[in-house]
Amino acid sequence: MLTQKTYHISGNQLAALESGTPSATGISVVFLHGWLDNAASFSPVLARLEMDTPGVHFCALDLPGHGLSGHKSTGNYYTFHDYIDDVHQVLTDIPAKTVILAGHSLGGLIASCYSAAFPERVSDIILIEALGPLAESPQDCVRRLRNGVLSRERIRRKVAKKGFRSLQQALSLRANRSGVAEKCIRPLVERGLEMRDDRWFWRADPMLSADSLYRMAESHATAILKAIQCPVTLIRGTQGYEYLMQPERLSLMENITVHTLPGGHHCHLEQPDQVAQMIDGVVRKRQKLSGLY
């Protein structure tokens, strides 16, 4: 059964959904969700893993500003690199000797960067619709700075939203925007909403919608991908992001396995049993290599 957990990091508290107990001699699989999603995006996958992969600690985090986690201080716009530090603080509190990171979209970008910077802390990474950090030409840096600052200005000027009259209204909107069936995305939506004054509002910090002021150059992303030492499992949807199959990026990692599933960018919500089976395979292989199975 999934339970609620809170991790204390510098200046904030992060919520999580967990199954199992972390052990110094065991394996912990830490899940990192996508932008404006939350830990419940992994609920269907975790439900299957609980049945098929006993004796393993599973932890799905709500990243700062998402789900039930705390918002950062006023004026904080959630820069990408800060997430890497946030995850590092959580992993420091998890006693498992063997840690597997599984990330979707933004979570996969974080997992890629963290495993490159701290190869001794991560045994495997599982990337769902993600492959290394986002990158763009240095020629775009001035445009990005301008657009990023202007996006912050728009957020500061925004009038408070009126919310939704029902959970169903919010569910229908999110399902339509993401292209995922309502029944598949419901857990994510339910965790992402709160009721105030008889209306439903998204819990996510509005500051999350600000454009980034900085994006790496491809040479930076290349250096990070080359620094990843552990085995990589890439899971992509047939209707997902095409850039995931760029041969230039795939060739940078010597130990990568690619799986393609029917579905889009949220293929883990659309095909939870298949994704759980792939994660189970990674865990069992690591258990054998570690003498735990």
From TrEMBL:
Domain AB hydrolase-1: 29-277
Documented EC number(s): 3.1.1.10
Molecular functions per Gene Ontology: tropinesterase activity
Keywords: Hydrolase
Enzyme class (EC, first level): hydrolase
Gene3D superfamilies: alpha/beta hydrolase
PANTHER family: HYDROLASE, PUTATIVE (AFU_ORTHOLOGUE AFUA_2G14860)-RELATED (PTHR43798:SF33), MONOACYLGLYCEROL LIPASE (PTHR43798)
A GO-annotated cellular component: membrane
Full protein name: Tropinesterase
